[in-house]
Each structure stands twice: as C-alpha cells, then as structure tokens.
C-alpha cells in the first residue's frame, strides 16, 4: 500500500520555500548559508520598512514670546510735567486715545519710541503715536482765589483775591498750584477761578441797554451792574452777574461803572481777605463775587472784602452850581 501522505511531506521541511529560515539555521561556511541569510535580512528589512510608522516631524523651534501690551501705570512717571500738542487728529480705540488736532496732552511716560502714554485734560489716559505729537510749552494758566480756605496737610490755605499759577490738574476737585511766594501744593478747584492777565478786566460795568442772551451769552437789564472778567474779543466780554451767572455780554452794551458806598455800621475783619470798616467810611466797589460780599477799596487805598449788608450806595453828589459869571465892566476903556 502507498505510504501515508504526511510521510511524503517530511523531506520538504527545511527547504526554505515553505518556511522562512531562522538566521540561526545557517552557519558561516555552510553551502548557501551566507547567501540565504543575506537574502532573508534584506527581505526582513523591506518588510520592516513597509510596516514601520513614519518618523514624527521634527519638533518646531520654540517661538519667542509675544510682547506684552505696555501696561498703564497707576502713577505718573517722571515726565508728568511735559506737555505735547497733537499735530493731527488720531482715531484711537481700546487703550489708544482718540485725539483732536491742537489738543494739549500731558506726557505720563515714553512706552516705546513710537508710543507715548498720555493724559488728557479730563484725566483720560492711554497711548498715542509719538509722530502725531509735538512738544509744547503752554503759556502759564493763572488762577485767583474766590474764597477763603484754611488749608490742611499737603493743601495750601487760600486768601481771597490772591493769584497763583497752575502746575497741573491733579483731579477734577484738586489742582496743584504755585503761589507768588513760591509755595506749592493742592487747592480745591471750586475755590479758585481762571483768569488771563493779558485780558483781565476785573472791574465793574453797568448795562446801558437790555440784552437777551442765550447759548453762553447772559441777559442784561438796563442799569444792571456786572463784574467784567475777561476781554474775549473787542466786541465781547466775559462777565459775572451778582447771582453768580457767567457768560458773554456785548461790549457795546456795557459802560465802565464806578460805584461808591458808605459803611452804615462798624465791621471788624475776621480773615486776612476782609477789610475793617468804621461807620461812615466811603469805599469804592471793585467787584462783587457774590450777593453777600463786595470787594472794595478805601480812600486810603486798602482793599478787601466787606459784607454787602454793611454798605449802602452813596448817591452821586449833585455838582454845585457854576459860579456866577463875572460882571462886565460898565465903563469904556481908557482913551488916550
């Protein structure tokens, strides 16, 4: 009988075409062994290349950190007294300021050569392009005290009428100023008023006609006395009424007024800005800051505040009648 089938297949084992030989099956020097190992190694390398996942891409080089947006300090830098003027309009957004041509701003600090941190007059702070700005030295802004202020630590006392120069508007309520004697400090903004020495009027006017004002212009009644503050133009004056209302009035409706008063009772001054009066003293009104007080000068030249209810207008004296014309001589001239 024929041999079993598994016996016929036994000689085929080890020939390599049915089973891949192990590299350990071949030894150096055996017939065909070196060649078989080389072919197997090549095929094995090919299979590994086909099934090996691709190498990962090289890690990207780390990017430099993005520059942080310049921080806006809560305190002003050492450049806080330098002012700039906008030479062109700039429409800003976010932390960049919206500025108008001719607007004056205070430098807080130079963030970069191209961007400056600035502060506007209303206190708004932000960035502005440096090429839109030019350094500007504004004329000094002068203020005059309108009331007494006792002062406090770091805050200057005020005497009515004294003048001072603005250093900076620290807040809406407090201004830093320097007085004529060199003292420097904060004063309350509602105790002072701005004035222009070159255009300052600081004297009384009487309305010579009725004028109906609107849109920043005050109304006038014939005979009304107002204090002239500033000559805005040759045709318009800024005035202050006894009620405290301020606005423009036409210069052609105003005539300089000299008001003379007499003291109806003794008054003893209780502040440096006040004037001691004796009953019967004659004073000339300089201006009336409010309805309760008048700034006056005495005939001796002293100047200060006096309570309005201690003074009454002095009627204009009636001029004496002119002297009689000298009698004409009755005789003719001497003949000769």
Structural class: mainly beta
Listing every helix as H and every strand as E from the N terminus to the C terminus, the arrangement reads HHEEEEEEEEEEEEEEEEEEEE
Number of helices: 2
Principal-axis shape: elongated
Q: The biggest beta sheet, please? A: 5 strands, antiparallel
Range of strand content: 25-35%
Instruction: Kindly report the average pLDDT value.
Output: 76
Spatial strand arrangement across the major sheet: 4-3-2-1-5
- Terminal residue distance: 210 Å
Taking pLDDT < 50 over at least 5 consecutive residues as the criterion, the unreliable ranges are 12-33, 62-70, 72-79, 331-336
Number of strands: 20
* Helical amount: under 10%
Radius of gyration, in angstroms, nearest whole number: 49 Å
Describe the structure in your own words:
The protein is mainly beta and 336 residues long. It is 7% helix and 30% strand. It has two helices and 20 strands. A five-stranded antiparallel beta sheet has the order 4-3-2-1-5, with no helix packed on it. A five-stranded antiparallel beta sheet has the order 9-8-7-6-10, with no helix packed on it. 17% of the residues are buried. The C terminus is likely disordered.
Q: What does this entry show, briefly?
A:
This protein is mainly β and 336 residues long.
Any chance you could write out the topology, listing elements then pairs?
Elements (H helix, E strand, L loop, with lengths): L4 H5 L23 H19 L31 E4 L17 E7 L4 E5 L5 E5 L3 E3 L6 E4 L17 E7 L4 E6 L4 E5 L3 E4 L4 E8 L17 E7 L4 E5 L5 E5 L3 E3 L3 E4 L18 E6 L5 E6 L4 E5 L3 E3 L23
Antiparallel strand pairs: 1-2, 1-5, 2-3, 3-4, 6-7, 6-10, 7-8, 8-9, 11-12, 11-15, 12-13, 13-14, 16-17, 16-20, 17-18, 18-19
